[in-house]
Amino acid sequence: MTENARTTLTDRVEAQLRKVRDPKADLSVFEAGFVENVVAEDGEVTVETDLTSLDSDTSNQVIEAMLRAVDDVDGVESVHVESATPSSEDRESVESFDHIVAVASAKGGVGKSTTATYLACALAADNDVALFDADIHGPNVPGLLDVSGPVHSSDEGDPLPIRTDGMDVMSVGLMEDGAPLAWRGAMAHDALDDLFTNTAWRNDDVLVVDLPPGTGDVVLTTLQEVPVDGVVVVTTPFHASVSDTSRTVELFRDNDVPVLGTVVNMAEYVCDCCGEPNDLFEDDALGDLDAPVLAELPFTHELQGTPAPGDVPEAMADLGDAVTESIETAGEVAVPDHAVDIRGLSPEARKDRVRETFTELDSGDEFVLVSDRDPNPVGPFLGRLAEAPREAFDPFEVRRATPDDWVLETVVP
Ligand SMILES: Nc1ncnc2c1ncn2[C@@H]1O[C@H](COP(=O)(O)OP(=O)(O)OP(=O)(O)O)[C@@H](O)[C@H]1O
């Protein structure tokens, strides 16, 4: 066969393949990035694909459609679809996200996974969003989004998320088939940590994390290991749920985890027959919440469906806007005018700046320091400057205002 005839066969095969669509998005298999290469020689065609972002049913569907399309091409004697294993090189790690928002709850069953999934889909309207389901006790995200495994690994052995409408999703639930016991007991945290740290993401604007319910070790260590912008805590308006939520909010703050706000779920029920809204719980216990209410969501069948990235009911779109606004303001540290700001300075310049300001102050004056590192070690230095033991500084309060900013407030002894 001549070179020209070979090129023509490749062209004809590619033209037919272009008619095969991604069943989950209105894209050709080329636009969806499923076709890596087409080799057509002497009537034998090999289509090299990367279908790792698809669940197995969808992937089989696409392969079948490709085989049928190429089989019909004039001059094709045999056709073969091969899967290429992608590299993690063009993927991102968890540190690459601009923002990480975790969704937590004091107890199970209040709608945490529903909120996390719809929130990720709401944020996906304007951002490149990924969703990580860390709920080892009830990984519901795959069911909510109607995605399934198996999870493939890259050439480097890193787990590759499942992709749905441009959003990457990884869940302990997608891994369960292979290793159900790994998610229980002492091994759970290590296994979760591995998955969290090694997943090779394609998205890099916002990562939404669905945490396990409660404030156990897995929750706290996960929140401390990655620079989360903050946690959204989901509650129902029932007084016991609200008081558990208040304690959870307090615990997060005590552990330097910023709280963006709360979502009050199942706040009311709108009657299907008359359209009348009814409160589901009689007590108005929200006054006990020491955190802004980002959204009050109704109990509605609409929120029991399968959300699509970028296309959510209005109440969830509003929640997405409230979370975006909260992330932006959480990044701003409220610094009093007289504070010493040593962020971004060299170690020597940091010391000089602290010394200059501190030695100007008198006993009883307030000293406020803003730093991009934990300022606790500054204590002994201040002690030397004040010629007083560190214990003489009362109060000596350090808080992590954002993942990258700490504020120290103390008084000169
Ligand atoms: N606002 C709502 N309207 C209607 N149904 C809801 C709403 N929120 C949650 N649900 C339903 O309540 C059930 C529990 O929700 P979900 O799984 O999100 O809770 P959860 O807090 O994540 O629970 P767990 O921690 O046990 O996994 C689901 O069947 C969900 O569809």
Automatic annotation (TrEMBL):
Q: Which family does it belong to?
A: Belongs to the Mrp/NBP35 ATP-binding proteins family.
* Species of the source: Haloarcula pellucida
**According to its UniProt entry, what is the function of this protein?**
Binds and transfers iron-sulfur (Fe-S) clusters to target apoproteins. Can hydrolyze ATP.
The source's domain of life comes to: Archaea
- List keywords of the entry alphabetically: ATP-binding, Hydrolase, Iron, Iron-sulfur, Metal-binding, Nucleotide-binding
Q: Boundaries of each DUF2249 domain copy?
A: 340-409
Q: Which GO terms describe its molecular function?
A: 4 iron, 4 sulfur cluster binding; ATP binding; ATP hydrolysis activity; ATP-dependent FeS chaperone activity; metal ion binding
Where ATP binds, per the record, is at 106-113
Could you tell me which PANTHER family the record lists for this protein?
IRON-SULFUR PROTEIN NUBPL
Can the keyword Hydrolase be found in this entry's annotation?
Answer: yes
Its assembly, as annotated, is: Homodimer.
Q: What is this protein called?
A: Iron-sulfur cluster carrier protein
* Pfam families per the UniProt record, alphabetical: DUF2249, FeS_assembly_P, ParA
Q: GO terms for biological process?
A: iron-sulfur cluster assembly
Which taxonomic lineage does the organism of this UniProt entry have?
Archaea, Methanobacteriati, Methanobacteriota, Stenosarchaea group, Halobacteria
Q: Which residues form the MIP18 family-like domain?
A: 11-81
